[in-house]
Amino acid sequence: MGLRTISASLERMEATVAESIEEGALVFVADGEDGVGSVRRLLPDEDALLVYIENAGDFVIPARGVKAVHSGKVILDLDHLSRPVLEAIGNARRSEYPH
After folding, report:
1. pTM over 0.90
2. Which residue range is the domain that position 49 belongs to?
């Protein structure tokens, strides 16, 4: 498979993922885990999502930062997220567990 074919495949996958994401969808780091936030808005011009992460605020998540979308859930791909987003995710549930 050539580089152009891989690139085209990734673009189609990202477009499909973006089309199936709805505003208000819950955001998770893995299936079976507690949610860490929700989709505020789709940003098609930036090929990204605006996501509210609990206890941290809004962050722009690039399409490549989405691993899967199903059942009204958005599963993030931690390998493609910036350090500030990862830190926010790490603190998302902190207020629920005071110790």
Report:
1. no
2. 3-96
